[in-house]
Amino acid sequence: MIALILFSVFLAVFVLSIVAGSSATNLSSDFPLQFRVAARLRTTVLMFVVVPLSFAMKTYISVRAAYRRRQHSKGLGGTHAERVELVVSAVRKWNEAGRTKTLRTARPNWLGMSTKLGSNKAASHCVATHHLNHILNVDLDGLLITVEPAVTFGELSHHLVPLGYSLEVHVEMESITVGGVAMGFGMETNCHRSGFFQETVTEYEVILPDASVVKVTAESDPSLFYALPWSHGTLGFLASVTMRLHPVKPYVRVRYIPTSSKAELGKKMHEMSTGAGGCAVPEFLEATVYSKNQAVIQCADFVDPPKSREDKAKINGINWWWKPFYFRWVETFLTKGEAYEYIPYSHFMHRFTRSIFWEIEDMIPFANHPIYRFFWGWMGPPEVSLLKLFQGPVIRKASVYAHVVQESIMPVLELPNGIEKFDSWYGVYPLLVFPLRIYDRKENSGFLNPKGRNLHEGNDWGIWVDLGAYGAPRPIRQGQTWDAKTNIRKMEHWTRDIGGFQALYTDIFATHRELRQMFDHTLLDAARKRVGALDAFPDVYDKVKSEAGIVDLSDIEAAEKLDS
């Protein structure tokens, strides 16, 4: 009898998941049948396959981390030098064989956090680096930590927060690796104070194309040190990275400030990120935009545990699996008005992980329902890497034209204009807003060379904001088609014109020339030539561009040749 009841419940949930997937049936018939069928079944596959596999993967990583800590305490396990030597030996053999192919890591593309699926490594000599995944040293006195590149931010938060520390810039998504962020880019909501993740790095250990291992600091080799961020592994293989730590308190006091116009949001974000007009600059600052004119600013500071009865009643453990998704909770302050609460820092630092910011509701429409949260939510969200693994090339290509993942890093004063344009290009909400400090280091500015007009008056830095759009564009939700190439290229052109930058983990619709116009390659080009990387590693464009067949830029590239 009990078995029959359980089977009936399982069957009901299974059928419900298929029915929920029917929300995708308004997809235009212009999309391939395979993609439309996959969209219909996505909720079922996610609930019964991807979510359980994701939970198993996270459990394995947690158990592995605990085992390693135990081994380390006993003085057991291999050494960092031994693990690095495996990579050095592979590079040495590549040199001896005549350097006939470019070097790449052997990590499959689906494991990365970029939107790309198909491997562009077939013509390269791939070197295994997955074993470089250990925490090497935690120096609490010097507020420094050294880790190997395959360590994830989730592992670091579990390791550091119980000690009362976190990285100075601790990236939100738990599955992202330190190496990917160090050689690419990373941000959090305290980047208006600290700058990008790269600003917290004090030393890179790099295996160069000649198989030598160098430790690079801003003092020992400034041109190479500042060329490494955003280089995407085009200078060498990262062996370890040392970053600054920051002491933390058990709680953050979060204040929610609703705004009712783009101009109001832009003004407040400028003041709160720069201190203009004597405004206090919070430790953490972000905004979530729910429509063209409605947004909620979230600003937070570290605090000790609340003591009064009134304040204790305002403690909110937002990441318990039965709780509403954080972005939906934030949305309630549009009607409730300005307010504050206390959130445990261990919850706050990964506040959008459960809902993959807000992408999960596109995949599992009822994911925020209390019943789903209680009975399924304890397993956590689907891993982004596994979502990619379950795509094929047909689904991957179609998804680019049915779903947007794009970010424009624009000067803060352009934010109101950016929201208006994002509404026109994408029509996707919510939108993410992270303020970011970018430094002008003259010849050592590297890939991000800020225009002087965008610097904060009297300073060597300015504030940009990352405006992110994730979800199905408005025309797709209305059963129409959406011109990804035209709209994303409009965003890229506008972003370049105002002195902004594109997030390179997204699908790039720019040509090689256009990417070099957006990002200053001067320092990187010189560094690649100096260390012998020109024939050893692909250039950045070849590493970040979408795989063949996603977008046809031949007409634009032909026009560029005629213009040159």
Note down, in words, how this protein is organized.
With 564 residues, this protein is an alpha+beta fold. Helix content is 38%, strand content 18%. The strands form three sheets. It has an eight-stranded antiparallel beta sheet with strand order 12-9-11-10-14-15-13-16. Strands 3, 4, 5, 6, 7 and 8 form a six-stranded antiparallel beta sheet that branches. Strands 1-2 form a two-stranded parallel sheet. A hairpin with a 5-residue loop joins β10 and β11. The radius of gyration is 24 Å and the shape is globular.
User: Strand order, biggest sheet?
Assistant: 12-9-11-10-14-15-13-16
Oligomeric state of this protein: single chain
Q: pLDDT below 50 for ≥5 consecutive residues: which ranges?
A: none
What is the residue-mean pLDDT, rounded to a whole number? 89
> What is the percentage of strand-forming residues?
15-25%
- Biggest β-sheet strands, sense, barrel: 8 strands, antiparallel
CA radius of gyration is: 24 Å
Tally of separate helices = 23
The secondary-structure class comes to alpha+beta
Shape: globular
The end-to-end span amounts to: 77 Å
Q: In a few lines, what is going on in this structure?
A:
The protein has helices spanning 2-21, 33-73, 80-96, 153-160, 178-183, 191-194, 222-227, 262-274, 309-312, 326-331, 333-336, 345-348, 360-363, 370-375, 384-389, 393-400, 415-425, 474-477, 484-497, 512-518, 522-530, 540-544, 554-563, and strands at 103-105, 125-127, 135-139, 144-147, 165-167, 201-207, 213-216, 237-247, 251-259, 284-289, 295-303, 339-344, 404-411, 431-439, 461-471, 501-502.
